[in-house]
Write a structure and sequence with these properties.
Layout lengths: L3 H11 L24 E2 L2 E8 L2 H4 L35 E4 L16 E10 L5 E7 L5 E6 L2 E7 L5 E4 L7 E10 L24 E7 L2 E9 L11 E9 L6 E6 L4 E6 L5 E7 L14 E7 L2 E7 L4 E4 L2 E4 L2 E2 L2 E6 L13 H13 L4 E4 L6 H10 L2 E5 L11 H18 L5 E8 L5 H17 L5 E6 L7 E3 L10 E5 L16 E3 L5 E5 L18 H15 L5 E4 L7 E2 L12 E2 L12 H12 L6
Parallel strand pairs: 21-22, 21-30, 22-23, 23-24, 24-25, 25-27, 26-28, 27-29, 29-30
Antiparallel strand pairs: 1-10, 2-3, 2-4, 4-9, 5-8, 5-10, 6-7, 6-9, 11-12, 12-15, 13-14, 13-16, 16-17, 18-19, 19-20, 31-32
The structure holds (2S,3S,4S,5R)-3,4,5-trihydroxy-6-oxo-oxane-2-carboxylic acid (GCB).
């Protein structure tokens, strides 16, 4: 018989269990981590499935049990009865990777899995070490050598746990409990139209830096009230964590002829501005990236950064002063062909090859930040990116603690990707219900995003008005808080018939509009008449009528059909047609292009929908 509960009470009484788990405030997140030399902890991790987390992981008052599996002790073979778990003899999961596609029995599992691995470290005096977790869905609790080093909530953004004080020379071990349980007050909440892949879904690594080190930087084209092509300056800041005021920071962009040295203030922040006489601006036609070398004391890192100006002017979107039209598609972070979460260079190459084959210049990364490799590739390929936090449909907008979580996710997204020229829009939400509580919440969040990054327009995908006569009017007050309106609508699929689109007249507030979602489902290889649902022919027909409608919206500045590739969804359960997949893809999950893909390819080549 296990004596766990009695033990728990005793430990609780002795103060060995930590009180209720609460969302950590924003913790250190090393910007440009993928540009540093790290010790990769990817590979095989032992795992144990915890189907009774109320015993091992959580305490009865909702706190975290620091004295169970995190101890990583082994059961006694002789002597007093002790533990009933053992990582050493447990099977392994590949990291990075969701557990769902690795172990058939875990395909639909949305609970707690404990991960463990040993690793070697040789910490040197005068250095600091961090465990970097690219993403873990959804809540994680991390222990190194039996000490809890951090907790994190949010399945799609990275975090760093400082481990300096707990590492020792030689063999160390890390235990991470990942809980993929959906939460009513989570972001996203419980009902989602995508697969809730659980686990350590992105790279994990150990990084060692000097005592004072560059943890954050923002290097961008100076954002002036007006874009002046002849007057090119690069500005931003470099933050050196724990640097005394007056610490020197050098910014050097040799190829652009830009070089300066500045000093940190009392907060470790070193704002700078430097002329760049030889700069070529980043654009889809010429996605030029520069080596940017940042140095402070013993710390130095080199990033690849493009420089461009993005802004809204009336109902136009201007890139480097020139009006643009975004031709793109939506994409979930699901790997084509192999399935599972996107987390390899090959996954990213496959997706970007689809986009390039389609003549796209834009991708909406729905509905959460994707693997950082995606933005890196977008930077290199000249594909413009819409990046979003997972405020999807039913969020508890009435709860202050949900707002606090949202701000952390927003900060993590912006901090990780603000130096990517490809990212042109921050999206704060998708299809939320119009009510004053939601509008206040998201207006505050939009302002928060602007404070964090005043250089990029803010958007959100608004839930379409239902078809009523010939008029479709977007009167959502959330538009007031946005720079660019994202509009989702499914005329011809959820709403009316495909031909209805021909006669619709849209009205919007005077801002640029991106038709951020539209489309229809079709199973690859299913053929029939244009009025037959689920056929490739009908999917094409719906899109053709959409194009008629879209061409009548004067302020339309971009389109992104839903969606590039069919994706797993727990809510798509028509046997033989859906089989657990949302079939609105232009490409099937196994990489076969539907007729609709060819339609988009031609439309984008001819630029026959929309005008800059
Ligand atoms: C939407 C959502 C998207 C869904 C899509 C659909 O409006 O934004 O997440 O997957 O519709 O297929 O219903």
């Amino acid at each position: 018989l296990r004596s766990c509960c009695a033990l728990c009470c005793l430990l609780g009484w002795l103060g060995l269990m930590t009180p209720a788990f609460s969302q950590q405030p924003f913790q250190t997140l090393l910007v440009g981590l993928d540009r540093r030399t790290v010790t990769s902890l990817d590979g095989d991790w032992h795992y144990l499935v915890d189907q009774s987390p109320g015993r091992a992981l959580y305490t009865s008052n909702g706190g975290i049990n620091d004295k169970s599996y995190a101890m990583n002790t082994h059961p006694h073979i002789v002597g007093v009865h002790n533990e009933e778990y053992d990582f050493a003899t447990a099977p392994t999961l590949k990291v990075p990777g969701d557990w769902n596609t690795q172990v058939p029995a875990l395909f639909n599992y949305e609970g707690v899995v404990w991960y463990q691995r040993d690793f070697d470290a040789q910490p040197k005096p005068g250095t600091r070490s961090f465990l970097h977790i690219g993403a873990a869905n959804y809540r994680s609790h991390v222990w190194v050598n039996q000490k809890r080093v951090c907790d994190h909530e949010g399945g799609y953004t990275p975090f760093d746990c400082e481990v300096t004080a707990v590492l020792h020379p030689g063999s160390n071990f890390v235990v991470i409990a990942v809980d993929a349980t959906r939460l009513v007050d989570g972001i996203p909440s419980v009902g989602i139209d995508w697969f809730n892949y659980g686990g350590l879904t992105r790279d994990v690594s150990l990084v060692t830096v000097p005592k004072a080190f560059i943890d954050d930087y923002d290097v961008h084209l100076a954002h002036r009230p007006k874009f002046e092509p002849g007057n090119v300056e690069i500005s931003g800041y470099v933050h050196v964590l724990d640097a005394p005021a007056g610490t020197a920071v050098a910014i050097n962009i040799p190829e652009a002829g830009a070089k300066t040295t500045v000093k940190t203030d009392a907060e470790g922040n070193a704002p700078f501005s430097v002329t760049a006489p030889k700069l070529t601006l980043w654009s889809p036609e010429s996605p030029k990236l520069y080596k940017v070398i940042l140095t402070s004391g013993d710390d130095s890192l080199t990033d690849d950064i493009g420089f461009r100006d993005i802004r809204v002017d009336g109902t136009r979107i201007l890139l480097n002063g020139k009006a643009i039209f975004l031709q793109g598609a939506n994409m979930h972070a699901e790997a084509p062909i192999r399935g599972g979460r996107v987390n390899t260079d090959e996954d990213v190459t496959t997706i970007f090859n689809y986009l390039k084959d389609m003549n796209a210049n834009f991708v909406r990364l729905a509905h959460y930040p994707h693997d950082e490799r995606m933005e890196r590739e977008a930077d290199r390929d000249g594909i413009m990116v819409w990046s979003e936090i997972p405020n999807w449909q039913h969020i508890s907008f009435d709860k202050p603690e949900v707002y606090a979580k949202d701000v952390v996710m927003l900060k993590e997204m912006i901090r990780r990707d603000r130096n990517k020229a490809s990212v042109i829009l921050w999206s704060i939400s998708n299809e939320t219900s119009n009510n004053p509580t939601r509008t206040r919440f998201l207006t505050d969040l939009a302002n928060e995003a602007r404070k964090l990054d005043p250089t990029r327009p803010i958007t959100s995908a608004i839930l379409g008005p239902r078809l009523d006569g010939n008029e479709m009017a977007n009167n959502d007050p959330l538009c007031d808080a946005l720079d660019v309106i994202g509009q989702n609508e499914y005329v011809g699929w959820y709403d009316g018939s495909p031909e209805d689109a021909d006669r619709i007249h849209w009205s919007f507030p005077q801002k640029p509009v991106i038709m951020s979602e539209f489309g229809a489902e079709a199973k690859y290889g299913n053929h029939g008449e244009t009025n037959q649902r689920w056929t490739e022919e009908q999917q094409v027909y719906v899109l053709q009528h959409q194009f008629v409608m879209l061409n009548k919206i004067p302020q339309l500045r971009g389109i992104s059909p839903w969606i590039l590739v069919d994706f797993r969804s727990p809510t798509r359960n028509i046997p033989k047609l859906q089989d657990g997949y949302n079939r609105k893809g232009l490409i099937s999950e196994d990489g076969k292009k539907k007729q609709a893909f060819e339609l988009l390819e031609k439309t984008y080549k001819e630029h026959s929908v929309g005008k800059p």
